[in-house]
Amino acid sequence: MPVNFWFDRNPSQLWEPLHTILSDRPLEPTSSVSTSEELSLSYRGYAGRRGKAALMLLLIWGIVIGLHFVSWGIWLIWVFTGLVGLHALRTIILPPPRRQLIPLSVDGPLPYVSFLIPAKNEEAAITPLIEMLDQIDYPGDRYEIWAIDDNSSDGTPELLDHLSQKYDRLNVLHRDHSARGGKSGALNQAVKLAKGDIIAIFDADAQVSADFLWRVLPLFQRDRIGAVQVRKAISNAAENLWTQGQRAEMILDAYLQEQRVAVGGIGELRGNGQVIRRTALERCGYFNEETITDDLDLTLRLHLDRWDIDCVTTPTVREEGVTEALALWHQRSRWAEGGYQRYLDYWRLLCGRRLSFSKRLDLLVFLWIQYLLPTAAFPDLLLSLLRTRLPLFSPMTTLTISLSLVWMFLGLRRVNRQTHQQQPWPLLLRDTVQGTLYMLHWLLVMASTTARLAVRPKRLKWVKTVHRGVSEAN
Predict the structure, then answer these.
(1) Of 59, 183, 333, 431, which has the maximum CB count within 10 A?
(2) pLDDT tens, 204-218?
(3) Cβ-count burial 220-251 (b if 16+ within 10 Å, e if not)
């Protein structure tokens, strides 16, 4: 048996593929994907999003108000805080996942890799990425590069055509104004043309090390791994306080993702630097063209199809950080909207038996911390002011902020150790406090997003982050 036979395994065959549930039609094993319309599956759960968001908002407000007027409300909050704290404690005390992997062998059949780069008005940023991928340390006959120009209005189409003449491995797909599905539609159209067993997706401003594939591909030796997410590092972290905060945020996120995987929880995709097994992507119905966050939506699809997502601190993918407060708000609001929307879309499946108990518990805890607690904080604060008493949810809020401090500290220390950096303790503590204060903006983002979704229809437009072509290293 060849040494590298693992890349084409499909251990989920005993389960009904998720895409047959999403499309409400039987699986036809002999059928092949031929059009982008067939790739996009419309699921009944996508309907009525605004109504579901409004119902959730009313339910949260009603529970908060009710708890304020019963004598045992505070005790229920303390019990729930303790349960959340126990799960969070496991993410702190358990070691990171131990991965016993066999290095790739050039003597065996290596997986064919397709790099996909969705590009909309990326003239200023995309050239270094194309140059880097063309020279990446991997056999040239075992990978290809696809750049998808999604109806760009700048010089991106002409630039990509010029680069394709220079680099033989670069393929260019142009989409015009009639193309639909936003970024997800662009990816689906490219996946149909790509030949890879493994699909690696990068934003146009991404940069990775030359040995990226040799370090990431062995992670797919484990049958259950459907995708891998590497840590995102901010290339212009030193530019201002906003980019410094994003650096700490990405380190915190990577630490949390690794520890959630360690406790048997949910690993999540983050768009840039996500590497996906093709068979897993096919079983999930490809990318959802009815969402504004394809990565977060695919995260739940993969887990619902009984795949695991591994998350690693190293290697990293470098990307530009947002440099202005307003742009940061818009970007985070889009992430929050797509992240919350997926729970409204797939709640029936999440309540079913397709998730293990440990994943369901982890999902519930972080749904509460990330989305529901910020939503409950406003009516809780309002009632506490009217009744001149401490907010009922103050134990939970205190726990969440304390956990952020601990997770931030441990994440920064882990990155320092893995990158062999010796950071003095005062500077480490300073970065921990500064990063935690920066993270408080998520409370406003989440609370405003859950309220806005209840009164305004969801946006399907691809609202991209502007990239300037930053070259500094993080």
Answers:
(1) 183
(2) 999 999 999 999 999
(3) bbeeebbbbbbbbbbbbbebeebbbbbbbbbb
